[in-house]
Structure formats: structure tokens, C-alpha cells
Amino acid sequence: MVWRRGTALLARRTTDGGRTWLPVRTLATSVGLGASAAAVEGRVDVVYAREVTCAATGAPASRIYHRRSADGGVTWTAPVALTSSCSETYQPDVARAAD
Question: 20 near 77, Cβ under 8 Å?
Fold first, then answer.
């Protein structure tokens, strides 16, 4: 399960069909508008818009990042920026297929 609380993107997982849940894990902070997650067969992809400062202008910007877990949320890749550092993007969406 992935959700946003305030400006934090959080994740929590279960290994017994939802009877019990493991501790909450923070995937990102300073998350702006929009986050999306998709899971298939234990592989999870998360995209989110993070509030940043444009280095060229000093103005606020919103950048899309991606994280992936190949083991049902036990471990996660480091965040990868998908848009430029001065982009104005919001409400990303992600989908995942079995392959």
C-alpha cells in the first residue's frame, strides 16, 4: 500500500493477505501534487511529483521521480528523476504489466 500523508509518500506491506502489516516506510518527502503506484506479482512501481527549486532561476518547480521494488516493497531503488530540474509537472500516473 502506498499513500501520501502531508508531503510525505509512505508505504506499508503485508505478507499474510492483510491480516497484519509491517511498519510504515517513508519513500519520499516534499511530495507535491500527485503520486501513483502500480503492482503486479510483487513488483511495485511508484511515481510522484516532488517540490524542488529550479537551479537556473531559483523559482519553485515540480519534478517527477520514480522508485521501484522488485520484492514486494522490502527494498526500493534510489529515486530517479524523470523530468528536468525546472519542470512544472503534476499528477503523474504509472502502470505495470506482468512482463
Answer: no
